[in-house]
Design brief:
Layout lengths: L3 E6 L3 H16 L3 E2 L8 E6 L4 H15 L1 H4 L4 E6 H6 L2 H5 L5 E3 L7 H6 L8 E2 L21 E5 L1 E2 L10 H5 L3 E2 L2 H13 L4 E5 L16 H8 L7 E4 L9 H9 L3 E6 L7 H6 L6 H14 L4 E8 L6 H14 L3 E6 L17 H24 L5 E9 L7 E4 L11 E4 L10 E9 L4 E5 L1
Parallel strand pairs: 1-2, 1-3, 3-4, 4-5, 5-6, 7-10, 10-11, 11-12, 12-13, 13-14, 17-19
Antiparallel strand pairs: 8-9, 15-16, 15-18, 16-17, 18-19
Helix pairs in contact: 8-9, 9-10, 13-14
Length: 444
């Protein structure tokens, strides 16, 4: 009888892809995937450790899963991912309930480790992250059947002072265009119509390959994969956006008119302290360039408030920048003092209550910008990809436009859908109502 495995994936979509590769390897290796941890012989927790709250969630989840060794069938507990890469063998003493630890560059060894005889495999596998999966790695898509993430590269060569990712994921390493196209064709063959491209630094894609590959060439290749309808790009570092990328977004119908470009701040002193390599004026020139090439493009970005040394004036400049640029989507995070990052030792650490108030003010300002932008959509007919029942309103079907990325942006609530409106189908929807982040529409 096959051993049953349950996997818990925490953190970002990039981590989700790693989890899907692990599941694919386990199923190929003879394990049976189960939905409930209490039914599993093996439980795998793929952890996040980007910021302290994520580490805390990872530890809580590991301890919760360890309980199934007493109350369920679990005989082995495996912990993988960023938390393991960050803390290494120190976790062996902190979490004795765990049988194996695998770092971010070792997740492809999951089946090997589980199938090894007792005592023949070290408890902890952590080394310099070098691995990135290719199209030959078995992978089981865990997102919606019609939508998937495609990891185009791994690691990051930037050294932003607040970020621990280079320590967790290693140096930048891109997958080849043929490898990505092969995986995209395989996903399309499984019914995927929407691909979301993810990495730590999408802008730098291909530079390390030395063969002329870049985002433009990749997007144009993906746009010719039969079955795909929407291709959307995430995590584009603002500096160095290739013109080929902007041309592909503007010219390829299947490439969504959408760009996720984390900017982090707008104040000159803050951008310098963060080592972002750009000024507010520089960011404004980049945004102008993007909008000139792709008129009407939907721009998503993220900001950090409460970075060490952030004054009222710095925050006021950030608020002014957001109000002037009128981004379509904005995420705002409060700074976390992460051990091992240069920013952790900077003077002028901002009190938590100040961070939270600045986050509230910025999000409130963006909510009004978003509400006005969405109100302008009322009366228009938009193409919508049906996702299925909503998380908060399971009695209603929801979908998304090409400018609404899954899991991070708003949705379209579908009013009065007919029998042809099923998950994975595209429908035309006349927008009837708008809120701060979501739309309501009737299927035409």
């Amino acid at each position: 009888m096959a051993e049953r495995v349950h996997l818990v994936s925490l953190g970002c979509p990039k981590n989700r892809v790693d989890s899907e590769v692990m599941v694919g390897q386990l199923v190929t290796g003879g394990f049976e995937l189960v939905d409930r941890p209490e039914d599993a012989d093996v439980i795998v927790v793929n952890t996040c450790s980007f910021i302290q709250p994520a580490t805390e969630e990872s530890i809580e989840t590991v301890l919760q899963m360890a309980g199934y060794k007493d109350t369920g069938h679990c005989r082995k507990l495996v912990v993988t991912g960023c938390m393991v890469q960050r803390f290494g063998r120190a976790l062996e003493d902190e979490l004795p309930e765990v049988d194996h630890f695998l770092g971010t560059g070792e997740y492809h060894r999951i089946t090997e480790v589980l199938q090894a005889r007792q005592g023949q495999s070290p408890k902890t596998h952590v080394d310099t992250p070098l691995y990135i999966h290719d199209e030959l790695a078995p992978r089981l898509n865990s997102w919606k059947p019609h939508s998937a993430y495609l990891k185009i590269s791994e690691g990051c060569d930037h050294r932003c002072t607040f970020c621990i990712i280079p320590q967790l994921r290693g140096k930048m390493r891109s997958r080849t265009v043929p490898s990505l196209l092969a995986e995209a064709r395989a996903l399309a063959g499984q019914g995927v119509v929407e691909l979301n491209l993810v990495s730590q630094d999408s802008t730098a894609y291909g530079r390390d390959l030395g063969d002329g590959s870049d985002l433009g060439a990749l997007l144009r290749g993906l746009a010719r994969v039969d079955g795909l309808s929407w291709i959307r790009l995430h995590y584009a570092y603002p500096i160095g956006l290739p013109v080929s990328l902007l041309q592909a977004i503007a010219e390829e119908e299947r490439v969504c008119s959408y760009l996720d470009m984390p900017l982090q701040h707008a104040s000159g002193p803050m951008l310098q302290a963060m080592r972002r390599g750009v000024t507010r004026a520089g960011q404004e020139r980049i945004l102008d360039r993007v909008r000139r090439h792709v008129p009407g493009i939907a721009l998503r970005t993220t900001f950090i408030v409460g970075f060490p040394g952030e004054t009222d004036q710095d925050f006021a400049e950030l608020l002014d920048f957001v109000q002037a640029q009128r981004f379509d989507r904005v995420g705002v995070f409060t700074y976390c003092q992460e051990e091992g990052t240069p920013a952790a030792t900077l003077p002028g650490q901002v009190p938590d209550e100040v961070k939270q108030e600045r986050q509230r003010i910025l999000m409130q300002a963006q909510a009004e910008i978003s509400r006005q932008a969405l109100q302008a959509q009322v009366g228009k007919v938009l193409r919508v990809l049906v996702d299925g029942p909503g998380d908060e309103h399971p009695d209603l079907l929801v979908g998304r436009t090409q400018t609404q990325a899954p899991d991070v942006d708003g949705v379209v609530f579908l009013d009065g859908p007919g029998p042809e409106v099923v998950p994975g189908r595209f429908v035309d929807v006349r927008i009837t109502q708008a809120a701060e982040h979501d739309l309501v529409g009737r299927v035409v």
